[in-house]
Amino acid sequence: MCRFSVAILFCAAHAAAGPNTEAPRLTGLQLDGRIDAAWAAAPVSDDFSERRPTQGATPPVATRFRAAIDDEALWLLVECDDTPGGVTALTRTRDTVEMFSDDAVSVKIDAHSDRRTTLGFATNPLGAQLDYRAIQDGDFRVEVDRLWEVAVERRDDGWTAEYRIPFAALGLEAHALPPSIGLNWSRDHARRNATYDWSLMAPPYSPVSASLYGTLRLLSARTEDAPEPAGGALVATPFFTAGLREGESSANGGVDAQLSTANTHLSLTINTDFAQVDLDDQVVQLDRFGLFIPEKREFFLAHAETYDVGRSGVFQPLYTRRIGSGDAALLGGLAVSSRHRAEEGPAVRVALLQATTRPTATQPWTSSLAARAERVGTGRSQWSSGLIATHRHGEDPDDHNVVVGLDATYRGPAPLVVRAALLGSMTGGSAGSPGVAVGLGEEELAVAPALHLRVVGRDSLVQPLLDYAFVHRSFRADLGFIERGDVHDVTLGVNVEPRIQAGGLEKATITVTGEGAASGAATDLLDWAARLDASLTWDAGTWFAVGGGYRSDTVRRGFVVGPREVAAGSYEGAFASVTLSSPSTLALYGSLTADARAYFGGWLVGGNTSATWKPLDRVRLELACDVHEALFETGEDFTTVVANGRLSLGLTTTLSLDLFTGYGLLDEILRAQARLRFEVLPGSHLYVVYEVLDDEELSHTLLAKLALRVDAW
User: Fewer CB within 10 Å, N or C, the chain?
Assistant: First the structure.
């Protein structure tokens, strides 16, 4: 018990004041991965703590870093000591989280010191690159592409990485740098399956909790003979496409552009093509709710932190996958976000997103608009409040849907996060039937409310949870995601995570959860569930979990899944699962889950498995398969099989080939894609994509896209 108390006190003290260092202005820096004389004036920081397996311990090997700036970029140099022959690296391809299974370093930057937004830049001893964005201590997205450089050098006793990150990549102006930015380093040490942080990211805080970052002071005095830069950073990427589909040729072009100043970031896209975006994994929907698939397109991700209202995948007013997806191609879009801070006091953010999609056989021209204003507190104790509005409009004047809402969030210093949102919607009489997961919208022109409240405790040992949502039966959010309408939905839970740190066992996790859903009028209890989950995590990275419980579900409207028509009514029964996962630092690793649950008058029995094999640093094979058998006394049994496979070939750090296949038996859909990515110049890419879709009819598409990046200041 003493060890638990020490861990709690350590985390509380650490959260109160993170570490700090400074970046002097230096000249003569050369990107070669070496510690040359130009770095002599930069202070060295080496106070790293072990996050796992032994939280708060001093790492057995040293990690040191230095920071500097010049007239255009932030420079960082990190040294990772190790035992002779101990360095491990099996990932060469760009933008893959598999890098974190290697020896790797990741620098995390909160460029505007808002303590909730992260831009991350990771590399490994092979010089592979990964850039990512994270919001609100989570929502980790790797689809971000920033122009930055890194050079690595392997030594007998470790390795070194040297970064050059242009201020434009951070959304900063070189002539108007802030006095400081948020900064953290994390080092993954594969040989020990360990992670070390400069500013400790102690669980339950996520590895990208910007509220716990340290501070990097920018000593920005300019050299006397340095030219004064222009007042902004402009990145323009014109692109050209040419392709074949079913024997018909096509050619097109467009442009993406971003303009960053000290306070404002603007994104513009015209005639957009998203050929460079990965295909979504094939999934199967076995319940009556809509599927939530995360956004992958950089245009929409660039301003995502501003629109982060509600609970992702359950209740949110803006879900950008509804804009320009499927056949409704994006004609153009404009996104602007601006941030202004008074000398003393809170910051104010404002943002605007406008997008127009082309008409299809079933959908007219559509205009989508989202706007947000937010007041953000300063320091580690933050209250923020905001106003959000969305508007979808078709060609008919009465074909519209408007959502307006207020929200507020509290984060720290108490180990607590509170989020609340109150929304209202109004829908025109010609808006048509609501789509899946946008609400019910049963009354035309009704002003309908919706409410969401979430309270999460972030103590290192015990983390309670309360989540409540109310959605009126007439509420509708055409640009949002509503898991279910006309319901009061409550989740109560507590997570207990003692850190064992003995006998090779890192921690145990026990979670008790209760859920309930009542009708909108609060007259009927529709659903309820009680579950218990327990898991063990070993120092080596092995993970074992069991869980189970009992639930009751009320189907208010019948639906069809496979050959079975699930009738309206009440269904209840038990469920259970068991999972075993091997350490991801191995060249071959995977997980296996077996589960069974009562399923709308029958049973659903099966499991899923995944495996990753890295035989060479240029080759990675990922396979995942989910197989379930639905069994009913009525004889309407069916089998679901979903399989996804990806072969990634990192031929060089600038040339890669990805082969993807996804198959769903229940819907009889097969998708396959081969995508070649070649960085012809820094930030400029050639994509060649071949795609096959077998969905009742077989179609083939071949597309080439050349995107040329031009930077100006």
Answer: N
Tokens found for residue 354? 């406008």
CA dihedral 118, 123, 127, 133 (to 10 degrees): -30
**Angle of CA points 294, 291, 629, to nearest 5°:** 125
Main-chain phi, psi angles of 368, to 5 degrees: -125, 130
Element (H, E) at 299: helix 298-301
- Are 330 and 360 in contact by the 8 Å Cβ rule? The answer is no
DSSP character at residue 8: H
Q: Quick: pLDDT tens for 298-333.
A: 888 877 878 889 888 888 999 998 888 766 678 888
Between CA 533 and CA 9 the distance in angstroms is 27
Q: How confident is the model at residue 355 (pLDDT cuts 50, 70, 90)?
A: very high
- CA 675 to CA 692: how far, in whole Å? 12
The burial of 540, by beta-carbon neighbours within 10 Å (0-12 exposed, 13-18 middle, 19 or more buried), is given as middle
What are the residues whose beta carbons fall under 8 Å from the beta carbon of 422, sequence distance 6 or more? 405, 406, 407, 449, 450, 451
Q: How many CB atoms lie under 10 A from the CB of residue 554?
A: 16
| SS3 of residue 372 by DSSP | strand
User: Which residues, at least 6 apart from 392, have a Cβ–Cβ distance to it below 8 Å?
Assistant: 366, 367, 368, 369, 400, 401, 478, 479
- Output the furthest CA–CA distance in the chain (Å, rounded): 85
Which residues make Cβ contacts (< 8 Å) with residue 262, sequence separation at least 6?
Answer: 172, 173, 176
DSSP classification of residue 431: S
Global confidence as pTM: 0.86
| Nearest-angstrom CA–CA distance, 370 and 360 | 22
Type and span of the H or E element at 15: helix 2-16
Report whether 388 contacts 394 (CB < 8 A). no
Q: Note whether 238 and 269 are within 8 A (CB).
A: no
Q: How many CA atoms lie within 13 A of 553 on its CB side?
A: 19
Q: What is the mean pLDDT of the chain?
A: 88
Residue 463 has pLDDT above 70, yes or no: yes
Q: How many CB atoms within 10 Å of residue 224? A: 5
Q: By the 8 A CB rule, do 528 and 74 touch?
A: no
CA 401 to each of CA 230, 360, 392, 447, 539: distance values in angstroms, whole numbers, following the listed order: 42, 19, 5, 11, 52
Exposure class string for 450-483: b at 16+ Cβ within 10 A, else e = bbbbbebbbbbbebeeebebbbbbbbbbbbbbbb
Task: For residue 260, give the amino acid letter.
Answer: S
